[in-house]
Design goal:
This protein has 475 residues and is mainly alpha-helical. The protein has a domain of 68 residues. α2 runs antiparallel to α3, α16 packs antiparallel against α17 and α21 runs antiparallel to α22.
């Protein structure tokens, strides 16, 4: 065994440099072979001295004009210096001496891509696939996938990755890439087939299990996805992305306790993220555990204070407990970030209305109908607020405007009916009630909630009873 290999390498390099300088100066020197020139070019490249690397390649080809390897090295430097056409000419010459060298096809591809000649680059690589096997074929397929990506032939990118996995089923780079492209192209069934085949031969490949699970998840086969993710985390206990996706699958199945368990595992394995805390908060919210939901939403807000949605979700926990002032505090943070959000404006309006701050509430509801005049929810909230404020005349006007903008949505007919009864315009109200019951009797409860006194009007009760009897007789 050599005791000082690095010292010997250094001495050898110093001798090569000396011979090289003597050659340039026309002095006596040892003969430099192809390998020596390649070492010199590498040395200059490593030192970021590309000018000298190019000079060395030119001198080398003067001494060894038929060396295809030196032609490849010079072509590579020409490409680095953006002399793409010169590089292609040199590569054409090199192909006369060595047409089966993979460097020929990779360098030609690089030059053609730089010239925005992607179809030619793809054709060269497609032809080269027939010449190579194993690792070299895999390298060409990676390059071909990149070419297809460049000119947006996304289905062909997926095809290349499928071929890659046939050549090298355990290639981590190919496995990671195909997961993305499966989702992008929606070719989940094919992904399932190739990954099942890989797992049959390599059952402890956690990335293959993950990709299989992700493909099932893409097809909304969440139970199968969870099973596959569980195999992945058994093989690799710290596979945080598997836990993350498993949490999403449990959420889709409304299995909130299970989702919390795996999402908390994500927090153990990776750095805290607002989306994970938000998801856990959502699960607790669905389980009715408002305190834990709020705790996790606060964690999410702390990590991402500029997300209006997080402030809104935090506020919703206070709204659920009728803590209107606390809810407003967080909703005001949300509205500063996203002033045009329908949900946030409606929520602030609701809180203000509950606190009998009707004038301010109508401003927020008014902002919604101004931005989205065809949206029924905004009109409902505004009319309800005006009714609570006993601004019946304005409510009637708004009803007419709302009906016009929404194409006379049936639910708004019931709101208008309620307003007319509140105005003591009984005759007109009864006509509207009959009309509304004819069109959409299912919204009657909205009318009663808005104006319960309608049940004290015998004529209104008669109309309601008559329509109920007609529905029963039809059944």
């Amino acid at each position: 065994m050599q005791q000082y290999p690095f010292q010997e390498d250094k001495e050898e390099m110093m001798q090569l440099l000396s011979d090289y300088e003597n050659l340039k100066a026309g002095k006596a020197h040892n003969f430099l072979e192809e390998e020596a020139y390649i070492k010199l070019i590498d040395y200059f490249e490593d030192a970021d001295n590309l000018t000298e690397a190019m000079t060395a390649s030119e001198i080398a080809l003067e001494q060894l004009p038929f060396s295809s390897e030196l032609m490849f090295r010079k072509a590579d430097l020409l490409i680095v210096n953006r002399k793409y056409l010169e590089a292609l000419d040199l590569l054409d010459t090199a192909s006369l001496y060595d047409s089966n060298n993979i460097s020929l096809y990779i360098l030609k591809t690089d030059a053609l891509l730089a010239l925005d000649r992607q179809p030619e680059a793809a054709s060269i690589l497609e032809a080269a696939l027939e010449l190579f096997e194993g690792e070299e074929k895999a390298d060409l397929l990676f390059d071909l996938a990149d070419v297809y990506d460049d000119y947006e032939e996304f289905e062909k990118v997926f095809d290349c990755l499928m071929m890659l996995l046939e050549v090298d089923p355990t290639s981590e780079e190919a496995l990671y890439k195909i997961c993305f492209w499966t989702d992008f192209t929606g070719r989940y069934e094919e992904s399932i087939q190739i990954h099942q085949k890989i797992i049959d031969n390599f059952p402890y490949n956690e990335i293959a299990w993950f990709n299989l699970a992700a493909a099932y998840q893409g097809l909304k086969l969440y139970e199968k996805a969870i099973d596959a993710y569980q195999f992945a985390v058994v093989i690799e206990e710290k596979f945080d992305y598997a836990y993350r996706n498993m949490g999403d699958a449990f959420l889709r199945l409304r299995k909130y306790k299970e989702a919390i368990e795996v999402l908390e595992k994500v927090l153990e394995l990776s750095r805290p993220e607002d989306v994970i805390y938000e998801a856990i908060g959502h699960c607790y919210h669905k389980l009715g555990n408002i305190a834990q939901a709020r705790f996790h939403y606060k964690k999410a807000v702390h990590l991402n204070n500029d997300d209006a949605k997080l402030h809104y979700k935090l506020a919703s926990t206070y709204m659920q407990e009728q803590q209107w002032q606390m809810a407003i505090k967080h909703l005001e943070n949300a509205i500063r970030i996203n002033r045009n959000s329908k949900e946030i404006n409606l929520a602030i309006g609701e809180c203000k209305m509950q606190l009998k701050m009707y004038k301010e509430a109508t401003q927020y509801f008014g902002a919604v109908v101004l931005q989205r005049p065809t949206n029924v929810a905004g009109w409902e909230a505004l009319i309800k607020c005006l009714m609570k404020a006993e601004s019946f005349d304005e409510a009637a006007e708004r009803c007419q405007v709302a009906l016009h903008h929404t194409g006379h949505k049936p639910i708004l007919l019931f709101y208008y009916t309620a307003v007319l009864f509140a105005q003591n315009k009984s005759k007109e109200a009864l006509l509207q009630l009959e009309n509304a019951m004819t069109i959409a009797p299912k919204f009657l409860k909205k009318l009663i909630d808005l104006h319960p006194n309608i049940l004290q009007n015998s004529l209104a009760v008669d109309i309601i009873s008559r329509f109920k009897k007609q529905r029963k007789s039809r059944k």
